[in-house]
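Batch job 17 of 40 flagged for manual review because the log was empty.
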Amino acid sequence: MLKTIFDLHTLLHPQKIAIVGLSSNPNHISYSLLQNIVDNGYQGIVYPVNPSLKAVKGIKCYQKITDIPELVDLAIIILKPDIAIEIMEESAKMGIKNFIIIASGFAESGFIEQEQKILNLAEKYNLTILGPNCVGIINTHYNLNASFATKGLPKQGKISIISQSGGFSIGIIKYLTKMKQGISKLISVGNKTILQESHFLDYLANDENTSIIALYVEDIKNFQDFENSAYKLLEIGKPIVVFKGGITTEGSKASSSHTAAITENNDYYKALFHKTNCIIAETIEELYFVISTLEKSNIFSKPKGKRVMIISNCGGCGVINTDFAIKHNLEVPETSEELKQELRKILPPAAALNNPIDVVGDTDHIRLEKAIRTVMKFKNEYDYLIINIGQQSTINMEEVSKTIYNLSFELEKEEIPTLSCMFALDISQKEYDYLHLSKIPVFVYPEQLTKTIQLIQKYTQNRTKILQKQINVLLEDIDINWNQIKQIISQDTKVNGFISPLNVIEILKTIKVDIPNSQEYQEDLSIDFPVVLK
């Protein structure tokens, strides 16, 4: 069955919006939604609808949606389910095709028949419907915040968020704002009665303002559609970073009352995400760090090995970062003699020249810059560069931030993925502003940094393998002798035209698949009956 094609462009770029069920109470979500639309540079027309009001925020109110003098592109409905469905049918008869249903009280509250009515309307009138039970949409590149997710319009960025939870998406926006980063779009799918994640994944695959997708799901209604859509993004090179809710029995129950999600065996989801090479975030923090890092520069999305070069002004910091690098399956290679010779020219005698390189605790921003520039000349010795700064009282962090900021553009040009760890509890202070505006992601703790590299490196490595059709992603961590397998298949098929059962067993052994032991019996062996043979 072919997936229905919806007009998502108009949904995300409406020129005329009706808000049905608007309140004049500034604390009501409908008022917040109107305020977000009209106060943030939206260039279209807004038509509030409420039979009890003449105007809100100086904008004329209409008693009924049928009183609006022109056909709107999008109707946002903030009414109870039974009234919302009635208004939708009236609107659909007028020719309105796109709807966002904000209200809850549908299947997640046990009223499945209400969502069935939405399905019937969508099919009858060919409607595009987001929700119900959602917080709306944001499109920063269109100056549109048609949501109550956050006040104001977030900064423009390359990250698009698709979330089954409004609150979860709000957390992502707040974190990125703190890091002085932005988003491209927020799409709150809610109960997903009509529009699913896969519909928006297809759309974002062709969206020039989206490079990374942050995805929160509690359930997926059609695995095949999701798989097809995710593969498109994999081919293009737009990573999907996914966090799955409802992975425990108790969480699954909570999910059903949250968005009417039916969460199946979590292993199914893991298999689906592995197969499509989604980056699986085990914690919310991991999702934040990965999307933030990928958004900093497109060089993080390019295939790289596992070697990290560490520069630190603190011996212990370098040791700790090395430990976490190894723990997260990265490599910390020794520096070459040539690099050591160059470092001796610029560093004091007390400096440690092997990886991790210790430029000594009294380092200022000038010595740090010299060390980084020297290491840049030997970029063939590593895949990722890590800059550790332990903040002794002698160091001027604002000068260090400026130095790293200036170098970040050269590092990007040289295609050296670089990350920094500040060993500081609060990296939102003013002295870190330059760092946040640089092409280098900044972390508080080294374990966050090395885990982020691990997840991104694994994605880029697997993507290359999948696209080259060299290996199935599910076998990614197994050391396989492919030449031996090719030899077995070649010899067998040449002689027999098929692979013999014994050689099938040899191939399975080669790819580390456990098989039961078998024993050969002589034909004349006396066996008591009855006997079952296979």
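Reviewer: the log was empty due to a logging misconfiguration, but the result itself is present. Residues 446-467 form the longest helix (22 residues). Unflagging and moving on to job 18.
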